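Usage example:
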Amino acid sequence: MSNELKNPFAATNQERQARKKEKLIQLSTQFITWLLVIPVVAIIIFLVYKSWPALSVEFVTENPKVRMTAGGIWAPLIGTFFLVLVSLLIAAPIGILAGVYLNEFARDNWLTRFINLAVVNLAGVPSIVHGLFGLGAFVYFLGMDRCLLAASCTVAVMTLPVIITSTKEALASVPMSFRVACWNMGATKWQTIRTIVLPNSISGILTGVILQVARAAGETAPILFTGAMISSRVADSGWDAWVPYGLEDRFMALSYHLYIISTQWQNVPESFKFGTAAVMIGLVIAVNSISIGFRIYLRSRKKW
Amino acid sequence: MSESSPTTSQGFSLRRGIEKVIDFTEPAVVGLIHLCGWSAIIFVMAIFFFVFKESLPAITGLEEGAIQGEVEQLDLVEFTTSPKWIPESAKKPTFGILALMVGTLSVTILSMVIAVPLGLGAAVYVSEFARGKPREILKVLIELLAAIPSVVWGFIGLVVLNPMLVDMTGEPVGLNILNAGIVLALMSVPIIVSVSEDALRAVPDSFREAGIALGANRWEMVYKVLFPAAKNGLLAAVLLGIGRGIGETMAVLMCTGHSVMMPTSIFDPVRTLTATIAAELGEAVRGDMHYHTLFLIGVVLFVFAFIINLTADLIVKGIKVQGNE
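Running the assembly step on the lines above writes:
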């Protein structure tokens, strides 16, 4: 009783408990978050540690040899690179224009809602169903047969929704006043987009697009039946080593290669499997950090 | 537009010529933009059309060679209720996807049991408690978690988690529901974190201020103010996580043990719908029952995914409408 008279603002027991509980919750959510993140770091370190015997410049630049028990991963690596490149060439124009439509042209009506719904659903289609679609539509219906082009088309369809979403975001970050000023000068909608909106957002759009397509290239399911092959002869040096696959050729890809050597193929040295996984994660980290760095750079240069 | 550039007013200017051509093609370009805008709808319909088209002969019946002359047709009752999946049997192939569906569901449910508390906890921490540098680092690392390819996750389950589970549980093989559930949980956590963080951020700051002003501490504010206000977005996050789990292919193909059976515990191996397509379509001959049935499984997956995404989208739209009031 006397205590309360001395300090009327002292915390009651109940308040003290509530504060204790808050502290506890904060610590436990913090613990949970780090719990999620630490395995990733641990896994990366473990992969690099296990693949150390194989990791070398030759591992990246040499082709797989002697039933994948020697050599390196050049053939699948360059295959993945071409998959990304061709998918990018197909998906980027369509996706960027679709983003432009949704952000600049679309009115708030049922059609727009329908399109947005389709984008969400396209993003949610399981990757293996994309693979089935690629097989049914590109390989059989359009008669492409299993090849780099068919696989790239499949991956392009798969990345379309994420490209549309990231383009929309980049376009939405251009202030409305820029457009209004341009319209007031008498410019048409397309002139405004071409001279004001796109130049102010193109670097953001491209970062998003490249990041998303590179991510999709890590997928295995869509290329499983549309063009990836277990083993393909690739020249060891010269022009043919740099451009080993034409659009009509089947190709090796890093993701499929890892699947094959870790589940189907016998006698592949442990360090080769870990090395392939480590290179894949390394590429993912590289693409991600470049895009993050670029984002920070863009933010610092922003004029508005 | 053209009058506004006095420096190029004399003689022929290439730049102006190009601009004129571009302006002349404006209707065509605008038309192209509209067409691309509708591409998402076109592709969703095309996906359903082509996958359904390839599966159709299984339902309507296909002529199994001219010799027998009889029409072979998939028994839809057997398809949905039989746990037996014996597609390449010479005597009597059986196409029942019940065990595969149970496999998909058990792995997905386990992964959600692990991922939902972790994902929500992490979202609350990242959006409400953390600030400054650690927050940025955590966001980057969680984004990285989302970027790791599924085949690498499968590899991790196969070579890292597998021996660990054998040591810990004493089972002979560590490729089972538990393994796939853990891997899938780690894969779907990023999507749960990012969608629920968005949902928490969408709650106006005035709600937080009102809560604090009434004497709530941070946790009481999160629990009693933010959770009810953001509950639709949080539900959508869980649904999208489920969608990811059902659709995931390579990781579950490598981690579940890949045997068709009705599981009785989380240490049993199972096989999922997606893994079955991935593993068997390569061997199935185009045009036979097995091939068409695998496409029918694709249709089932498409419909599942469609319903889940539609529901999640409607729920999120629900919050937006509420937020405007």
